[in-house]
Specification:
The protein is α+β, with helices and mostly antiparallel strands. It has a single domain, classed as Muramoyl-pentapeptide Carboxypeptidase, domain 2 (2-Layer Sandwich), CATH 3.30.1380.10. Helices cover 24% and strands 13% of the residues. It has 4 helices and 9 strands, in the order βββααβαβαββββ. Strands 4-5-7-6-8-9 form a 6-stranded mixed beta sheet. The radius of gyration is 17 Å and the shape is globular.
């Protein structure tokens, strides 16, 4: 069986198992932006990294192979590669191959997303991997940030009350339990950004941006000692 285009939505396709993803085309970028805006609201198209890029860490060990035939296959206990939202492409700016990017995503699924499901969170991936072309369409100045390296995802809890309040619960759980352990965690209002193995300096590993866009509030590194009262996890 082959992937099928979504009728009436250029740039959107569905895998044989029924998972929607976007084509790395202008139409696919526009469709992704529209879906992000609908679920995430203001700030969803923020493409500029909140911190200066650092040297890229090495790709994860234990994942040396990825082929397009694996796109709709499981990469962890609960997730598939296709939940990246875009098929991985090489990122010359970050010196990462398709396989390395897919492996980065697999590590997020195994070490962040799976544990959240096991903890009872019914998460929605609102923005996962971003191709270099899509990241530039969001205004990114370079493509070595965590999203275009497959190292970050934006998570929401939808259909269970106020998304902002649910995002607070998710943010506090990840922070308190050091899930991952994450390299960056941002409360962004209606969603939570979490990165694994990324390039953020320690001082901006925990941030708050209630509108989903810069300026970001620095809250004291991984321990978050300066977190606002409603986001403290101690």
């Amino acid at each position: 069986m082959c992937d099928k285009p979504v009728e009436g939505r250029g740039g959107v396709a569905v895998t044989p198992s029924g998972l929607k993803y976007y084509l790395d085309t202008p139409a696919g970028h526009q469709a992704a932006k529209a879906d992000m805006q609908a679920s995430m609201g203001p700030g969803s198209a923020e493409g500029t990294a909140p911190a200066p890029p650092q040297a890229q860490p090495s790709p994860p060990e234990g994942c040396e192979n990825y082929e397009d035939s694996m796109w709709d296959k499981p990469c962890s206990k609960y997730f598939k590669f296709s939940q990246m939202k875009y098929k991985p492409v090489a990122n010359p700016d970050a010196n990462l191959s398709v396989t390395q990017i897919a492996c980065n995503w697999q590590k997020i699924c195994q070490n962040v997303l799976d544990p959240l499901i096991d903890a009872g969170f019914k998460i929605t991936i609102s923005s996962g991997y971003r191709t270099p072309a899509f990241d530039r369409s969001l205004g990114a100045k370079n493509t070595i940030g965590d999203h275009p390296c497959g190292r970050a995802t934006d998570l929401q809890i939808l259909g269970q009350g106020d998304p902002s309040e649910k995002a607070k619960d998710l943010f506090k759980y990840i922070g308190k339990n050091n899930v991952g352990p994450f390299s960056q965690l941002i409360y962004e209002g209606r969603w939570v950004h979490v990165a694994l193995g990324g390039n953020s300096p320690a001082g901006v590993s925990v941030l708050v941006a209630r509108t989903g866009a810069a300026p970001y509030q620095q809250v004291g590194g991984r321990a978050g000692p300066s977190l606002p009262p409603d986001l403290k996890w101690a």
